[in-house]
């Protein structure tokens, strides 16, 4: 039951692992989500830690994957090399395919040109272009003969190419070009390119050199073209065969590349998880000490005491997986360091715990709307519980969309006020507004409505006045009962920490103060409800007047009629007890704490002398192992000396606590009136929506009214959901959250400490913690 009210019992232990087993053991603890590692290398730079190279390697793999086990690393590097090789081969093949395609179209266009130019004889050309990739030069001993150069150029560069060619060669060349009717694709950029085929006739070696330079400047590709038609046809056939072979090779290369990519895609998620786990494990190992002489990893861990057996089993499994022969050693370490806070949750309670973890008591006023909405709608059962409680309060107030439900039959009747079908003359004379008078026999049955507000109040002119008083009292009762429960919970804290002084000097006077004043107020409210009498109630004052006179001892006021026998004596006793409880809380505890401190100071030298003598006598009988030496070194400076006792600080702290408690009982009770205000606002909004929206549709008649009621009901439903359910529901959620957090929990809750953050693969993969 202790974990219901506070953190589970935590244990600080030292963990000794062999170096070869450390990785597997830490991996098993990461799956367990129950162990928090302390940083034993806080003074060591992060770049100088033992496993920094492994962390960098994992980060490199993460960059490759962008959201792998060591086996996955090898596979990934091999696969990356294969994909890169396939990409390079595919680019080379497509580049070769582009060149052969251009050559194919060039040979076709050249053949067409020579066939149309019938006046040019085949022997008119002397340049031999039978080579596939090189152009033979014309012999210098044969002047007066024409040569030609054929190639391909980008279409947008053709105009500038033609102008420069004409100017440099001074018009001594003949240029013929034709557009390629098939668009091509750049093998690197994958963009579509449009090109033209050209053929240039010239005379002499000097012009040929100039043409070559101009072609290079405009990035035009020159292809060899045979001068004989038979050779051109033969080359064209060879090009077609090579293109078909290239198509087959490119298709096979693309299929191989797709298989590699599909394999990578299928294992991508697994590799990404493995890389993140590896990185987290090495980060955790960097928090540990490495004993080079003993070849072991030393860690300090926090974990729940109740899960010790599970943690030991996980360490044994990690040792078996690594093949290590040395079993891990887990030894508890005594320390005065405050343990982390851990509250075990399930699927239901996790939502409530997230409120505490996300905001905390001190951060309540810093909540932003995004966090509120996220918490509100992710914890869907919070909405369910609020809905159930809303139905419950609706039944108490007998209010459903501003209308009452007459389930059990009203306890009030108007029939006794009639005589022979007309109003009783006496009733009319004494009651001119014809109100339901409980003094008239038969009007009130004497039995209250079984559950909730009697539906007859929905017709009363003083409905708002009655409900206002009723809801205010219900809010006060709920608030005081919850605050008393909070004070009772503080008793469990005092018992758990074995502080009898707090039980006698804090809990008891707190209970006396709140029960004598506010508990008595609740009693008076319920007593007046239960002991209702028509004649007595007509002259009896309100509960508020009784409460004020209780403080002022104003019992001589004739309007202050007692509700029960000896009420004045009882109220006087309660006021005196409440006044006595204040100095009880304020004065006694500081002096007792000072006396205890002086007593402890007198006993300390005697205890220290006895312990020193014992150590000196037994020092020869003890041997210290290397593991114990490491343990002592790690914890040598952890034990903190007790703070020096300062009576002034203790007295001021107790005075602040007393004043806060006494004033808080008043202010917190007033804060619970938020529930009253919310209820009234909700009821009035509901009544406005019914009267001004839905009531309009119900007044329509005929087919038009039938259609209109559907339209008006849609408007009514939208406004009801938007205003009453969402806006009012969120407002009620926030007010109830504050009442629970501040007014209730300040009686017992202590939010000191720090959150238990275990090494967890689940939290790391979900992104809820930093690695």
Automatic annotation (TrEMBL):
GO MF annotation, one: ATPase binding
Gene Ontology annotations for the cellular component aspect, listed alphabetically: plasma membrane; vacuolar proton-transporting V-type ATPase, V0 domain
Coiled coil is among the record's keywords: yes
Keyword Transmembrane helix tagged: yes
Topological category with respect to the lipid bilayer: Multi-pass membrane protein
GO biological process annotation, one example: vacuolar acidification
Function: Essential component of the vacuolar proton pump (V-ATPase), a multimeric enzyme that catalyzes the translocation of protons across the membranes. Required for assembly and activity of the V-ATPase.
PANTHER family, sorted: V-TYPE PROTON ATPASE 116 KDA SUBUNIT A 4 (PTHR11629:SF26), VACUOLAR PROTON ATPASES (PTHR11629)
Protein's recorded name: V-type proton ATPase subunit a
Source organism of this protein record: Orycteropus afer afer
């Amino acid at each position: 039951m202790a974990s219901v009210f506070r953190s589970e019992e935590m244990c600080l232990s030292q963990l000794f692992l062999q170096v070869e087993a450390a990785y597997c053991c830490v991996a098993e603890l990461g799956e367990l989500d129950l162990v928090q590692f302390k940083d034993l290398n806080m003074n060591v730079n992060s770049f100088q830690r033992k496993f920094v190279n492994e962390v960098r390697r994992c980060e490199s793999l993460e960059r490759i994957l962008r959201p792998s086990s060591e086996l996955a690393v090898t596979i990934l590097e091999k696969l990356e090399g294969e994909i890169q090789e396939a990409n390079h081969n595919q680019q080379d093949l497509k580049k070769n395919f582009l060149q052969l395609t251009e050559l194919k179209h060039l040979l076709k266009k050249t053949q067409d040109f020579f066939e149309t130019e019938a006046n040019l004889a085949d022997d008119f050309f002397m340049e031999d272009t039978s080579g596939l990739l090189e152009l033979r030069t014309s012999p210098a001993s044969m002047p007066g003969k024409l040569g030609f150069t054929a190639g391909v150029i980008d279409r947008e560069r053709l105009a500038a190419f033609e102008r420069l060619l004409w100017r440099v060669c001074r018009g001594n060349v003949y240029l013929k070009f034709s557009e390629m009717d098939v668009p091509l694709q750049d093998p690197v950029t994958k963009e579509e390119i449009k090109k033209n085929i050209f053929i240039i006739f010239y005379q002499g070696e000097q012009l040929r050199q100039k043409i070559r330079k101009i072609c290079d400047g405009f990035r035009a590709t020159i292809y060899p073209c045979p001068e004989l038609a038979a050779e051109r046809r033969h080359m064209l056939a060879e090009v077609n065969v090579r293109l078909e072979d290239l198509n087959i090779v490119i298709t096979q290369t693309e299929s191989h590349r797709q298989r590699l990519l599909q394999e990578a895609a299928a294992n991508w998620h697994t590799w990404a998880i493995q890389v993140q786990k590896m990185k987290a494990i090495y980060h955790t190992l960097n928090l540990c000490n490495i004993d080079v002489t003993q070849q072991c990893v030393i860690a300090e861990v926090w974990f729940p005491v109740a899960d010790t057996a599970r943690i030991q089993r996980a360490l044994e499994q990690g040792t078996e997986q690594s093949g290590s022969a040395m079993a891990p050693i887990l030894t508890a370490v005594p320390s005065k360091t405050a343990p982390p806070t851990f509250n075990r949750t399930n699927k239901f309670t996790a939502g409530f715990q997230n409120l505490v973890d996300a905001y905390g008591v001190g951060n309540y006023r810093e909540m932003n709307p995004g966090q509120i909405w996220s918490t509100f709608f992710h914890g869907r059962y919070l909405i369910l519980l609020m809905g159930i409680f809303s139905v419950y309060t609706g039944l108490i107030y007998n209010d459903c969309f501003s209308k009452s439900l007459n389930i059990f039959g009203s306890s009030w009747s108007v029939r006794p006020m009639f005589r022979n079908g007309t109003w009783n003359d006496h009733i009319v004379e004494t009651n001119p507004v014809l109100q339901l008078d409980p003094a008239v026999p038969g009007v009130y049955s004497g039995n209250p409505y079984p559950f909730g507000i009697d539906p007859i109040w929905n017709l009363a002119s003083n409905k708002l006045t009655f409900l206002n008083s009723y809801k205010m009292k219900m809010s006060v009762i709920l608030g005081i009962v919850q605050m008393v429960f909070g004070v009772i919970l503080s008793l469990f804290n005092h018992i758990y920490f074995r502080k009898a002084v707090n039980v006698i000097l804090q809990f008891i006077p707190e209970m006396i103060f709140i029960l004598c004043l506010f508990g008595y107020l609740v009693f008076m409210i319920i007593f007046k409800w239960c002991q209702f009498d028509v004649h007595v109630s007509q002259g009896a004052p309100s509960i508020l007047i009784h409460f004020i006179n209780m403080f002022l001892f104003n019992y001589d006021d004739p309007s202050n009629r007692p509700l029960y026998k000896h009420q004045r004596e009882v109220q006087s006793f309660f006021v005196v007890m409440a006044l006595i409880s204040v100095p009880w809380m304020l004065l006694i505890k500081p002096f007792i704490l000072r006396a205890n401190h002086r007593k402890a100071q007198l006993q300390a030298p005697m205890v220290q002398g006895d312990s020193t003598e014992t150590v000196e006598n037994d020092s020869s009988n003890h041997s210290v192992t290397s593991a114990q030496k490491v343990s002592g070194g790690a914890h040598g400076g952890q034990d903190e000396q007790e703070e020096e006792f300062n009576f002034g600080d203790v007295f001021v702290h107790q005075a602040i606590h007393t004043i806060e408690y006494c004033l808080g009982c008043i202010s917190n009770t007033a804060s619970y009136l938020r529930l009253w205000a919310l209820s009234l606002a909700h009821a009035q909004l509901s009544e406005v929506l019914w009267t001004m929206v839905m009531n309009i549709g119900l007044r329509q008649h005929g087919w038009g009214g039938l259609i209109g009621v559907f339209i008006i009901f849609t408007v009514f439903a939208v406004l009801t959901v938007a205003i009453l359910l969402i806006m009012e529901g969120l407002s009620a959620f926030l007010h109830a959250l504050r009442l629970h957090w501040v007014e209730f929990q300040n009686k017992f809750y202590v939010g000191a400490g720090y959150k238990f953050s275990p090494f967890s693969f689940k939290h790391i993969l979900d992104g809820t913690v930093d690695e």
